[in-house]
Every structure is written in structure tokens, then in C-alpha cells.
Structures
1.
Amino acid sequence: MSKINTNAVTFIGERLCLNFTNTASWHNREQPIEQLVNYETLIYWSRQMEIITATQGKHLLEQAEISPIEAEKTLAHAIELREAMFRLFKAIATNQQVKPSDLAILNNYVNQAYSLVEIVPKDSGYAFTFQKGQQKMDCMLWPIVQSAVDLLLSEDLSRVKLCEGEPCGILFCDVSRNKSRRWCSMEDCGNRAKAQRHYNKKKIQKT
Ligand SMILES: [Zn+2]
């Protein structure tokens, strides 16, 4: 199975929905680099996120071989959902107005997700599932939608940030106690900013 070559950033968003928006690199650039290049990579990412089981993944890949057009369609839907979520959470992170058209796209997927919801017995209690749709090729979209809904309705929404390294475009939920996280990672954009500051300081000293 082809792998997404961004393993290091896979979990950087701290929330499933934000990890999903980070499946395009340099997302804030005019032409980002797509990581979800085919349905296989969507399955691979979903396995990494543990939103589908290994058995489910195998079944979905078999399905994709039988119905490649359906697989393509699912990927297109996934990307449509991701892009709407990216614009929406980016707007929130940068105190911009969320576009009604982006909310409408999300709501369309929310409607589909909630038509599949079932409450099932689990351990000594109950669990919220999308069990009805779990054999379908787009089954990985519903937990992502659920994660976006949860985040939008939670107090953590004020912790959603866009990496300050432009045009990195990585979104994350800042879980640090004093809300001080600024970068996707210190090794990446954090370091670049540090190098830039150092360079600017030297330039000032020279002039
Ligand atoms: Zn970054």
C-alpha cells in the first residue's frame, strides 16, 4: 500500500478533523501538495488514525478494485470535505468570517453522517457509532465529520491555530497550558523562523 510521506505531521493537529486538513502539504499556498493522491492513501491514513479497522481497510481496498469509479468519487468527496473544513477552521483560527458556502458543505456531510448514527451496547454502557455505513466506501468520512462537529461545539475552538510559518497551512489545536504554541513543530517552521530572525539581526548589524 502506498504511504503518505508526511508521517511526522500525521498527528500534529491534535484533533482528527485537523489532522485531516493537514493531509495537503503547504496548504496555504496557491497550489498545495496533495497527499491523498488516491483512494489507497485515504485508506492508509484512515488506518493510521484508527478510524477504520484492518479488516475494514482490506474490505474497502477490495471494493475499490471492483469499483474504481466509486473509489475515485469517494476520494473527491473526501477532498471536498477537507477543503471546506480547512477554509472553515483557518477562518476561525485567524478571526475571519466563516463563509456560509463552507459551512453548507460541512452541513451536507453532517446530514449524511447523522443519517447513519446508531447507538449500540458497548461494555457495560452504550456507544455512538456509524455502524450502518461501515461497509460503504466513504465510511471513514463520518468520524472525521463527527470530530469537526465536536470541535466546533467545544471550548477548544479558541485553541485552533494556523501555523505561523507561511505558507505552511498546518492547523492544530493548541493543547499547551498557556496556549503558547505557534508552530506546526519547532523542528520545522519554528526553526525556519528562528533562522530568519537570526539572519535579519545580522543584516541590521551590518547596515
Ligand atoms: Zn508550519
2.
Amino acid sequence: MKISEMLKNKRTVSFEFFPPKKEEGENVLYETIKELVDYKPDFVSVTYGAGGSTREKTVEWTTHIKKNYGLTTMMHLTCVAADANSIDAITDAVDAINVKNLLALRGDYPADMPEEQRKGEFRYAADLVGYLRKKHGDKYCLGVAGYPEKHPEASSMQSDIENMKRKLDAGGDFIITQLFFDNDHYFRYMDILAKNGINAPVVAGIMPIINIAQVVKFTQMCGATVPQFLVEKMDGKSEKNQFMTGVEYAVEQCRGLIDAGVAGLHFYTLNKHGATEAVLDRTL
Ligand SMILES: Cc1cc2nc3c(=O)[nH]c(=O)nc-3n(C[C@H](O)[C@H](O)[C@H](O)COP(=O)(O)OP(=O)(O)OC[C@H]3O[C@@H](n4cnc5c(N)ncnc54)[C@H](O)[C@@H]3O)c2cc1C
């Protein structure tokens, strides 16, 4: 089913997984999926390495989830270093497993790639969205990424919003946000979108913090900020203590979003089930 159709009727709950590199990680992910299926997600998504580095694995995991659990799946697809042929090859693979939902992304350029080499066939996600819409009409529901704290490369929030308009005008159906830890960022973002005439559904990206040092490092790369009081509360504490604080915080965050009428909650699971389960047990 298309996610855009679901979003018309309900608040969705979804889980994001990434294709592990090693067998050990694969075993963890098999187990995680098995556990989280009990929560009857509206859809799950599988990430795609920028430059196509996980292409086969992304298709394999999407196939596994769809075939064995019958869940609605969304495959992420990045256009960095891609051309029409490589994108067509992916959509052929997607069609073969009857997936109807794609998250159309640019992906990140390797930090050392010179500017002149970045002008590929699809420079921005909007180019990929436009290509997919033009070639495939309404066959796919297309999600796009949104940044409540602004994309790190954007010169201003307004220029990032102009980009969002381009992605939606090109055929994007709904938005999933980058993770954020302070609901005020989300609420402000929703206001800015509305003021700019954007009313596509915005699914909130949630990541329960279970290891503060890891999350602080990770968020520096994606431009999200961790509230200082949480850093102070969790830093140096035991694994169990951090887990409990992180879950507690995410529960409050989800409740606040639900009260405000959020379109959906998308959990960045990091391929683990414990924290997502603990949050859902106390939220839904
Ligand atoms: C929900 C979600 C899922 C993700 N999944 C993956 C994944 O599976 N694999 C992966 O590699 N990465 C993933 N990412 C990360 C994403 O690829 C990066 O954040 C990337 O840097 C931007 O991708 P985008 O699609 O938002 O790019 P774009 O929408 O193209 O925007 C990138 C930057 O370019 C700017 N821009 C766009 N158009 C123009 C223009 N015409 N002129 C000037 N500036 C412009 C934008 O403002 C922004 O700063 C995900 C992110 C999110 C939020």
C-alpha cells in the first residue's frame, strides 16, 4: 500500500533499518525485525548507502521483510553518483518485489570530493523525485527528507524550505524529518512550512537515546542538536541508567507530538529493538 494513502487516514508508526555489513549484524537485525513486527508497524524502511554502496543488501532486506512479514516497505534511494541507468536498474528491482514506496534522497558526497565532480545527472533530491515522477507517473509514493533544524549545507532555513518546495512540486508526497530531540524544532518547522504554503504530511523522525556519547557524535554530522540538560543527565552514567533516561525522554517527546497531531512517528531503530519497544509500550 502507498504510505500517502495511509497518512490520509491515520497516524503512522514506522521503523527504519539499515543493511548490516557483517554477519553478526545481520543476525541482530533478523532478531530485531522479528521482535518489532509484533508492534504492527504501518511501514518499515531500509536505508540505501549513498553512491549505491548497499544497493544489493538494501534490496535483499527489503525483499526479506516484505516476503516474510508482508509489511508495507519503503526503500530509500539516493542519487549521489547515480545516473538514469543505475536508477532504472533499482526501480526494476523494486518492481520485481512489488514495492510501492521510495524515499528519494540525495545522499552525502564524500567529504573529499571536489565541487566540479559533484555535478552528476541528479544533483539534488528534487532532480531524482522529478525523474521518478516523469518516468513512472503515479506508480510510486515518494517520500522526501525534511530538516527541522535546517540541512547543514543550506545557507538559511528559507533556502532549505525553497528546496522542500522544489521536491514536493517535482512529485514528493510526504516528508520524513531528520531526527530531532526538542519538539519545539518540529513545531517551528511546521509553522514555517505552513507559512510557505506547504501542507504535505510530515512524519517525525524519533531516535530514543540509549548512549549519549554516540548520539552526540552522530548528530554533529547530521545537524541535529541534543539538549544540553540531557547530555548532563546522561553523560558518564551506566548503560541501564542511560537507557531508562533516553526512553523516558522519548516517551515524553512522542506524547507531545501525538498531542499536537503529528502525521506519524518514524523510529530510527539503529537495528535494535529494546528502546523502540520500551517507548511504544508506554506511548501507544
Ligand atoms: C528520513 C531520512 C532518511 C535518510 N536516509 C538516508 C539513506 O538511506 N542513505 C543516505 O545516504 N542518506 C540518508 N539520509 C541522509 C541524506 O542523504 C542527507 O541528509 C543528505 O545530505 C541530503 O539529502 P536530501 O535528500 O535531503 O538532499 P536535498 O534535498 O537535495 O538537499 C541537500 C542540500 O542541498 C540544498 N539544495 C537543494 N537544492 C538546491 C539548489 N537548487 N540550490 C542550492 N542548494 C540546494 C538543500 O537546501 C540542502 O542543504 C536520510 C535523511 C533523512 C532525513
